[in-house]
């Protein structure tokens, strides 16, 4: 009788361990990717940072190689000969009542160039994160609107850090 109870306890513990590990793997997988979100906001002229207002997303991983991504689709910035323009993008840690801290390096991205993915700094992992943009210092004298999609973590490694 005692052997049977020990076997039953061992089987129950094994089952609990399997279920526990399964739940941990599933919750970990859920933290790897955050769906892309649309953005549309005005970038100030000059080199002032502009936040994608009202769109703060919590980065849920502390893995800095889990890239953030941006797909810069359009800009209404006037250019010579209607060429595509560039805007500088980065993510920042959102800190209540403080200056938001850089959460990544600055990246100069051409409109319409497709999805670009970059590594994040450790200070935004995990934490509230927002997308920021700056004008590319090309002499623009007026604010302009940009559109696209972004995610604070795409569930994949960065591909464009060297650009």
TrEMBL record:
The record's annotation in InterPro entries points to: DUF2712
Keywords attached to this Swiss-Prot or TrEMBL record, sorted alphabetically, are: Signal
Asked whether the UniProt record includes Signal among its keywords, one would answer yes
**In the UniProt record, does the keyword Signal occur?**
yes
Quick one: signal sequence residues? 1-29
At the top level, the lineage of the source is Bacteria
Specify the protein name.
DUF2712 domain-containing protein
């Amino acid at each position: 009788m005692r052997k049977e109870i020990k076997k039953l306890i061992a089987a129950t513990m094994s089952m609990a361990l399997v279920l526990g590990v399964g739940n941990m793997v599933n919750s970990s997988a859920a933290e790897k990717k955050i769906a892309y979100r649309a953005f549309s906001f005005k970038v100030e002229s000059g080199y002032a940072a502009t936040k994608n207002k009202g769109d703060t997303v919590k980065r849920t991983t502390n893995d800095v190689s889990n890239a953030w991504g941006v797909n810069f689709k359009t800009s209404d910035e006037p250019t010579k000969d209607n060429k595509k323009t560039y805007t500088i993008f980065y993510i920042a840690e959102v800190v209540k009542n403080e200056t938001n801290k850089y959460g990544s390096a600055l990246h100069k991205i051409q409109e319409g160039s497709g999805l670009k993915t970059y590594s994040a700094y450790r200070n935004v992992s995990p934490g509230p994160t927002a997308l920021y943009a700056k004008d590319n210092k090309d002499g623009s004298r007026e604010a302009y609107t940009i559109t696209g999609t972004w995610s604070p973590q795409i569930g994949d490694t960065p591909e464009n850090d060297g650009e």
